[in-house]
Amino acid sequence: MVAVVKKPIPAGKGAPPKRGELSPVLGNATEKDDPHKRVPLNFKPEARFKDALDDFAHEHKTSSTRIMITAVLEYMERHGKSVDDLKDLIEPRSRK
Fold it and tell me: What global pTM score does this model have?
């Protein structure tokens, strides 16, 4: 004789997530990441390009990151993309 399996009782959705409270559900992210946070860019040029970029940055007393950002923004602008909202990435920001 086989026992009859009862259907489980649904638990419901529960309370909505609260800001600042950790949630086990990944989709409940209620906070946005800091837009000024630096993130890695998967860019792997040849070693001689990296060396040339580092030398150029050192000669001009700037960072290779700033040179890359400037170059990409100029390229995008030259090809018709509006980058006005990204110009602050080139200018130094005040540290808070």
Answer: 0.60
